[in-house]
């Protein structure tokens, strides 16, 4: 079955953009990771907050439709994912990232690979490196990697990851249905998109680590980007407002963690399906001097051989139809400009 690993194979990334810095040993920000002051310290608005939606609210569909259209991002509570599961996955991620660098390099993502340890996939688009290390999991890829890292004790990591992926898949399916229902599209389209995405292997789980940084005002955790797939569910249980979104006419807004809530954001593919009614939110992550932040992002997407096009029954489509694989290839070449290449 077509999945993200196939889609990435044709776009190798140079090793210098894959191997993260050894953050354990570093006590100052090297020039390679030093961003211009203005990129890291844009003024951030704290007074405006993104919507928080109770999934048990009888109006959840309407609230999600409104938040997706107006913000492209919202937080959900009463989502049915136990706090223990949110904490367990963070704990396993912390265990992985705290391994010595030579251990982590055993599971380094290969240049044409999609899974394993390494820098963010967007790294080659920027002249400076990010204060970040990641670990990408697709399907059961964590099994081989965990066996390399913990030959006698790999099961714990795999069990936590598998359970988490299963739970995320259910939740992503539920939220995708609610977002699609709020659009002006046919019942058939809603049912077929929700079902085919659920059955696909198109999802990925990304563990993110943002180590403590000696000079946070000159470093960036994750540079501004949009997520490529349909929607992302982000677990940021840590108590820091490091994630920021860009809102036209306002600027950068901090996404303050709400206890036990999960952050949901619209990705490029849902933006296309919605005929641009839902913005695919531009976001970035800042770093801290004394908090080593972990986040876990679940990217929910369809099979990479499926065709994506605006689904609206009434509007003139503003994007042409294309396969997910083709969109990923355009994004791999043009990043933020990808959507402009498929505009009609
Ligand atoms: O760590 C975060 O808060 C955001 C992570 C993110 O944007 C990503 O993994 O694409
Ligand atoms: Fe992201």
Automatic annotation (TrEMBL):
Broadest EC class assigned to this enzyme: oxidoreductase
Pathway: Hormone biosynthesis; Plant hormone biosynthesis; gibberellin biosynthesis
Keywords (A to Z) from UniProt: Dioxygenase, Iron, Metal-binding, Oxidoreductase
Cofactor: L-ascorbate
UniProt GO BP: gibberellin biosynthetic process
GO function term, MF aspect, one: gibberellin 3-beta-dioxygenase activity
Stored SUPFAM superfamilies: Clavaminate synthase-like
Pfam families linked to this entry: 2OG-FeII_Oxy (PF03171), DIOX_N (PF14226)
InterPro entries on file: DIOX_N, IPNS-like_FE2OG_OXY, IPNS-like_sf, Iron_ascorbate_oxido_reductase, Oxoglu/Fe-dep_dioxygenase_dom
Domain Fe2OG dioxygenase: 197-302
EC code: 1.14.11.15
Entry similarity comment: Belongs to the iron/ascorbate-dependent oxidoreductase family. GA3OX subfamily.
Protein name: gibberellin 3beta-dioxygenase
